[in-house]
Write a structure and sequence with these properties.
With 388 residues, the protein is an alpha+beta fold. Helices cover 42% and strands 17% of the residues. It has helices at 32-37, 97-107, 113-129, 155-170, 182-192, 199-207, 217-223, 257-262, 266-288, 291-309, 311-314, 316-326, 349-362, 378-387, and strands at 39-50, 60-77, 82-83, 139-145, 210-214, 227-231, 239-243, 331-334, 340-344, 365-368. Strands 1, 2, 3, 4, 5 and 6 form a 6-stranded mixed sheet that branches. It has a 4-stranded antiparallel sheet with strand order 8-9-7-10. The N and C termini lie far apart (53 Å).
């Protein structure tokens, strides 16, 4: 039987405890050499500060990684290739039919195993197409995560990103797959599973820290990826994450907007261009630490999203989180497609206290965000500088 992980905060590390009443499954003994070959990587949740969802439409974005929320993937050598199900996220045994339905209602039908399988396939095929030789050896993959499901924080892509990092190191090909290409591989893995998304989330998780991204068609056609610029995380003001304990499904937000854009809908096209421009302007506002402008751009970003997608697609609970923040004068917008909100208090600490009080009275959780630093190695950062 499995126990449910407990945590006092979503920014705290969660431990999964496995208890078995009729099975004893000790870990196989590992030699010193095997232990030395083990690889473990962490990828963080992502907050879209400005520009989303224009990344899907040749736009721009500013995003950053959140230090307290992550997915961890562990890879160790083994005789057979094994992808281990997670004891909580990949449950197939339940005490009752009611428990099964409650699990599906709260977490959906899919766990993380399919994500690990998909990136393994995409990684293998990419290496084959590009004549990157892979040593003939097997491994066992396992994962854990404390990123809330369906909260618009890119929990799925974090699992894929961490897995890709493990594969790069296990096969010693990190120097053969460019940093800029890795977000494409993560997105391709998710496309394999029918997940609708853009490159923004994957760039933020591959790079870590704070990143300005330009997905203009010129760059995408010429390079196959956008222009990604890491920024100093100290440019950011204090920001707050607001979320509900039972968030909506972020995957429902895209609705008919994509088709309208493809059909040449003038309102959608002009609105997406304005959203992209907000990321460009926000990048400049950050460089100048002009947080009044940043707050205005954040609010406008959400307002345009609401006009394009409509309240039914965004969901009443998600809209309420934004409105509660704005009720005390804070700027607010979705972190992604819904389920969580990022807020900025341009008037400082007093306003931040009002924000906390308003969120608590409304039944929402509010946390000061700690931004994760860049996860790239010195060599990888140097390779980016050489190409810019």
């Amino acid at each position: 039987m499995y126990s449910v992980p407990q945590s006092s905060s979503r920014f705290g590390e969660r431990r999964v405890v496995i208890r078995s009443t009729n099975l004893d499954l000790p870990s196989p003994p590992e030699s010193a050499a095997t232990a030395a070959m083990e690889v473990e990587h962490k990828a963080y949740a992502r907050v879209g500060l400005l520009g989303n969802p224009s990344d899907v439409y040749g736009g721009r974005a500013v995003s950053f990684a959140v230090a307290g929320l992550w997915a961890t993937v562990r890879l160790r050598p083994s005789d057979e290739l094994l992808v281990q199900p997670h004891p909580r996220h990949d449950l197939v045994a339940f005490p009752s039919l009611t428990a099964l339905v409650e699990r599906l209602d709260g977490g959906g039908y899919y766990g993380g195993v399919r994500l690990l399988l998909a990136i393994c396939k995409v990684f293998h095929n990419h290496c084959k197409r590009n004549d990157i030789a892979l040593e003939d050896k097997n491994f066992t993959l396992s994962y854990d995560t404390n990123i809330p499901r369906q909260a618009g924080l890119s929990g799925s892509s974090a699992i894929v990103c961490a897995t890709l990092s493990c594969l790069l190191d296990f096969y010693n090909v990190r120097d053969k797959i460019r940093v800029e290409v890795r977000p494409n591989l993560i997105l391709d893995a998710e496309k394999e599973l029918g997940i609708v998304a853009g490159l923004q989330d994957r760039v933020a998780q591959v790079y870590g820290g704070l990143v300005y991204m330009d997905f203009s068609q010129e760059h995408m056609d010429k390079l196959g990826y956008g222009m990604y610029t890491p920024l100093d995380i100290n440019l950011l003001p204090p920001l707050y994450l607001i979320y509900a304990e039972n968030p909506s499904d972020s995957g429902k937000v895209h609705s008919s907007v994509r088709q309208r854009w493809l059909d040449g809908d003038e309102f959608i096209i002009s609105s997406m261009k304005e959203v992209a421009q907000q990321a460009y302007d926000g990048h400049n506002a950050l460089l100048q630490k002009n947080y009044t402008d940043l707050a205005r751009l954040m609010n406008r970003n959400f307002d345009l999203r609401r006009q394009m997608f409509g309240d039914d697609a965004l969901g009443a609970l998600n809209i309420k989180m934004v409105e509660v923040a704005r009720s005390v004068g804070a700027a607010s917008k979705f972190t992604g497609s819904g389920g969580a909100v990022v807020a900025l208090c341009p008037d400082g600490d007093v306003q931040a206290e009002l924000l906390k009080k308003a969120c608590q009275e409304a039944g929402f959780v509010v946390e000061l965000i700690e931004v994760a630093p860049s996860v790239l190695t010195k060599e990888e950062l140097a390779s980016l500088s050489d190409r810019h």
